[in-house]
Amino acid sequence: METMHEIIPFAKEMLAQKPNRRMLKVYLVGTVVAFLGMVLGLVETVCQSFSSGEPLDAELAQLMAREQRALETEERGRQEEVATVPAAEQITIPRKLQQATGAHRSAGAANRLHAS
Question: Are the C-beta atoms of residues 98 and 107 closer than 8 Å to each other?
Fold first, then answer.
């Protein structure tokens, strides 16, 4: 309000001096631009308190959702590939080799370490 009280006497003084129209238009345009800047700054400040931390527009939200779905689909495909390994590709260790290397004993030994 303080600036409004300053603008009114300034406008009266300008009109009393009878300035040319061109100079009056320049002052009027400058005043309107300053007023709009002040209003827009006030609106931005008020609206910023209600917005979330990160501004999202509709296209960005759709793109993020599409990427998330693609990642989930890819992950499901990987899990299915791991779960459905053919029997021909599975590696089996013969019992004689297990006994020679002690592979079947290592798991039991690990379980018995606390009992020693």
Answer: no
CA distance 10 to 27: 10
DSSP 42-66: HHHHHHHTTS-SS---HHHHHHHHH
pTM given for the model: 0.33
DSSP 8-class letter at 18: -
Residue with tokens 């798991």: 107
Q: Does the CA dihedral 72-73-79-82 come out positive or negative?
A: negative
Three-class secondary structure of residue 81 per DSSP = helix
pLDDT of residue 24: 81
Farthest-apart Cα atoms in the chain, separation: 114
Q: Are 84 and 78 in contact (CB under 8 A)?
A: no
